[in-house]
């Protein structure tokens, strides 16, 4: 898929409830699962891990692994769920993930990644894509053959992309920061290494046949517009969770498409039937409402809304009652405001 706008995979964030909530606000954007390891698919509760509501499509499965055989078998299993794209994680900066030879550390092993891409292409006819960083640093996780602990040059990334693209990947989602694999938390890795958007622009300019999507620090419509002049797409990460109303403008970036221009009131009203259905299935109120917590980001009533949807809840209150109460109590000018 060549999606102009996509919402990044985020651990403990982009579960199926958040994806349904997102789909109310953007019909066209490509959504991603949380990162799912090949071993989890092979050995875990597959229905729990892979199930999704058809409303969520178009939807990509992001998979993590380091063994081509495991990746192949996991994707063959996932074929029954009919995801729209399969994405290989070569960008997660977590030292725990890197210690298992998954995520961003894979950028030091481009030939292994190429083998995994070949296995993925054999397992599915769906688009196979890669999410990576512009570079990596790590004293104890990079192979000694490199003779250095920092792979941060543009040439390092370009070499990785060239080798992996020959294996059949033609779409690369590039986070414009290096990943520091030791000493920084995942959160710090999203904030401390400086952005190098120019490297991603150069990658596209020098590889026009590849589909290059930029990721990292994109927070406004103006950011998106600027990037789309130089690359093929933009992936929105934390800003999509920290300010979900931002999603209501995304469809305007797709040719021939326009946003519905929903108000916050309409978004809540559309989410209530889903909450009622999922609570009947036994899902907890908090698991459903927690993803809405920033719907009133930087608006009047934000604090009240957060208080309403955060447990402990009043006795006898379920998700739909809480959301209806919010519609009664929150400022109407904010509820009915359009972006």
TrEMBL record:
The record marks 89, 187, 190, 303 as: Interacts with tRNA. It catalyses: 5,6-dihydrouridine(20) in tRNA + NADP(+) = uridine(20) in tRNA + NADPH + H(+); 5,6-dihydrouridine(20) in tRNA + NAD(+) = uridine(20) in tRNA + NADH + H(+); 5,6-dihydrouridine(20a) in tRNA + NAD(+) = uridine(20a) in tRNA + NADH + H(+); 5,6-dihydrouridine(20a) in tRNA + NADP(+) = uridine(20a) in tRNA + NADPH + H(+). SUPFAM superfamilies: FMN-linked oxidoreductases (SSF51395). PROSITE patterns: UPF0034. Keywords: Flavoprotein, FMN, NADP, Oxidoreductase, RNA-binding, tRNA processing, tRNA-binding. FMN binds at residues 9-11, 62, 131, 175, 215-217, 237-238. The keyword Endoplasmic reticulum does not apply. It comes from the Bacteria. Belongs to the Dus family. DusA subfamily. Belongs to the dus family. Catalyzes the synthesis of 5,6-dihydrouridine (D), a modified base found in the D-loop of most tRNAs, via the reduction of the C5-C6 double bond in target uridines. Specifically modifies U20 and U20a in tRNAs. NCBIfam families: PRK11815.1, yjbN. This is tRNA-dihydrouridine(20/20a) synthase. It comes from Clostridium rhizosphaerae. The gene is dusA.
């Amino acid at each position: 898929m060549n999606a102009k706008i996509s919402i990044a995979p985020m651990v403990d964030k982009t579960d199926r409830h958040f994806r349904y909530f997102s789909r109310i606000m953007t019909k066209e954007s490509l959504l991603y699962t949380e990162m799912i390891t090949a071993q989890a698919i092979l050995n875990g509760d597959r229905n729990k891990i892979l199930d999704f509501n058809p409303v969520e499509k178009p939807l990509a499965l992001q998979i993590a692994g380091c063994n081509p055989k495991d990746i192949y078998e996991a994707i063959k299993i996932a074929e029954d769920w009919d995801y729209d794209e399969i994405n290989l994680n070569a960008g997660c900066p977590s030292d725990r993930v890197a210690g298992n030879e998954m995520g961003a550390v894979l950028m030091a092993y481009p030939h292994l990644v190429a083998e995994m891409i070949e296995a993925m292409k054999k397992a599915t006819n769906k688009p196979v894509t890669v999410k990576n960083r512009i570079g990596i640093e790590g004293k104890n996780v990079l192979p000694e053959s490199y003779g250095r602990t920092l792979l941060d040059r543009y040439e390092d990334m370009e070499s990785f992309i060239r080798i992996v693209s020959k294996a059949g990947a033609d779409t690369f989602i590039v986070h414009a920061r290096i990943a520091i694999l030791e000493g920084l938390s995942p959160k710090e890795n999203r904030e401390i290494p400086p952005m190098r958007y120019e490297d991603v622009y150069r990658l596209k300019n020098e590889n026009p046949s590849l589909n290059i999507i930029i990721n990292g620090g994109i927070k406004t419509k103006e950011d998106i517009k600027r990037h789309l002049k130089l690359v093929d797409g933009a992936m929105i990460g934390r800003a999509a969770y920290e300010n979900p109303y931002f999603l209501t403008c995304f469809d305007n970036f797709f040719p021939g498409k326009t946003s519905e221009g929903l108000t916050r009131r309409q978004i809540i009203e559309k989410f209530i039937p889903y909450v009622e259905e999922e609570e009947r299935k036994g899902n907890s109120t908090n698991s459903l409402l927690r993803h809405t917590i920033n719907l009133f980001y930087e608006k009047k009533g934000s604090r009240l809304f957060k208080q309403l949807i955060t447990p402990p809840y009043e006795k006898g209150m379920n998700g739909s009652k809480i959301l209806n109460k919010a519609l009664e109590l929150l400022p109407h000018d904010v509820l009915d405001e359009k972006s």
